[in-house]
Every structure is written in structure tokens, then in C-alpha cells.
Amino acid sequence: MIRPGLVSITFRKLAPRQIVDLVVQAGLDGIEWGGDVHAPHGDMAAAREIAQMTSDAGLAMPTYGSYYRVGHPDEVNFADVLASAVALGTPSIRVWAGKSGSAEADAAYWDRIVADSRRIVEMAAEEGVAIAYEFHGNTLTDTAESARRLLETVDRRNLHTLWQPPKGSTVEENQAGIDTIAPWLGHIHAFAWRIEKGQTIRLPLSDHKIQWKEYLARIDKLGGERFALLEFVQGDEPDRFLEDAATLRRWLVEI
Q1: Global pTM?
Q2: Exposed, middle or buried, 189 (CB in 10 Å: 0-12/13-18/19+)?
Q3: Neighbouring C-beta atoms of residue 165, cutoff 10 Å
Q4: Higher pLDDT, 105 or 196
């Protein structure tokens, strides 16, 4: 089962209360709260306040969107990240698999990311929290094959990966990518864009109906429960978000 939600950093300029109200209005089920603006790492007061208002609205918090870069522990204290996740009551923390793309990373860098991954996964496990890599360029999870290699090497039960369509990828590549990481697949970041003259142009989600319905149906067949979390709406506009939310909800019913 796939449930619809929102990544809060889609609206960095809005306060948490405004985001909660928007998500309720949109008829979505949950929010991934970001650790940069809305629920800063280590800010327990903010985390508890957000947890309360989210819970009161009947919304889930499937994951905490941290900005912890695995292998770079001096930049963000993972203990602060974990404390915020526990205060929020979320079962999972999103982290970034380093700062280097898989094609550029040498063996020493891979070892560094693997070692730190194991460290934070074990810390999180003590609190009953899972870890999920952001599926993103300029990290070791920039391709499905590299993500699988990292997940298999770290080899921890409470380690997963998120998924989103990489820039410039084809539908066929994305279908194969989903299959490659299927055993570790957590939540999904959903958006629509095109690359034009090197620039990313955001589109209504409905413009990628064929692609997204295929991805969602494929993922739904894996079983289990996960969220499709909307991100990057056109113009950062609430009205566009409401349209995308209606589109996503309709697709999830149809599949």
C-alpha cells in the first residue's frame, strides 16, 4: 500500500502550522519534516511542537528528512539528528550517502561511507529507528546499482533507501532501477520536471502521468506500506501543490 504525503521542505518559507493545514486540506496522510528549517537537528522544543500538531491533525510522520552526510560527521552531529527523530516520533531518518558521486568515489571513500553508515545505523537501532539513504546525485546512491552495492556492503536490517527518478533518466531505466533496489526500498519522492538547456523546469505532476502510474504500480506490487511524498511543486505555490496532491491521490486509488 502506498500512502500520499508531502516533503515539508517543498515549502521552506511556510511555518509548520501552515504546512499541516495545507496537507490536511489536500487530503494527504503524512509529512516528512525537514531538518534544516522546520525541525532543526537537535531542537527538541521544535520537534515536540511539530509532533503534537502533526499528530493532532491525524497525520503520520513516516520519516525525518535530515541533512546528515554520511562520512562527514563533523558537519552535523548525528546524535542531534537522532534526538530530533525520537522527539518527532518518526520511525525513520533520511540521510545522504556522502558528497561524492559513485563514479568519482575511490575505495577509501567507499570504506568511509560504509563505516559511518554502520555507526549511525547501530545508533538509530538502539532507539528503534531505521535509516534510509536519499536517492540523489553526487552521493553513492546516485544510481540504483551503486545504491544496491552500498546497501549490500553495509548489510544492516534497518537500512533502506528512498527513491526518486534521477535527472535525465528514461522510464525503462527507472523501471529497472526500482527492481534493482526493491528489497531495500522505503519511501518515494514524487515530482515532475524536465531538463531544458541544463535547467530544471518544474511541471505539474499530471504531465508525467504515464511514467508515475507505472512507477507507483510497480512499487505497490512489492507489498508493504510506504509513502509517496510530493516535492518540488511548480513555483513553490500552494495551489499547485493542491493540484498535484489531487493527482497523486487519484493515481493511488486507480492502481
Answers
A1: 0.96
A2: buried
A3: 23
A4: 105
Question: For the segment 73-107, what is each residue's pLDDT rounded down to a tens digit?
Answer: 999 999 999 999 999 999 999 999 999 999 999 99
Q: How far is the C-alpha of 157 from the C-alpha of 118, rounded, in Å?
A: 11
- Residues 92 and 62: their CA atoms lie apart, in Å, by 7
Cell of 233: 511543486
CA pair distance 131, 201, nearest whole angstrom: 30
Beta strands in the chain (DSSP E): 2-7, 30-34, 64-69, 92-96, 130-133, 159-163, 185-190, 193-196, 199-202, 226-230
Counting every residue written for the chain, the total comes to 255
How buried is residue 106: exposed, middle or buried, by Cβ count under 10 Å (0-12/13-18/19+)? exposed
Which residues form the domain of 120? Answer: 2-254
Quote the radius of gyration of the chain (alpha carbons, Å).
17
Q: For the chain, how many structural domains are there in total?
A: 1
Q: Which three cell numbers stand for residue 124?
A: 538509530
Q: What is the CATH number of the domain that holds 164?
A: 3.20.20.150
Q: How many CB atoms lie within 10 A of CB 218?
A: 15
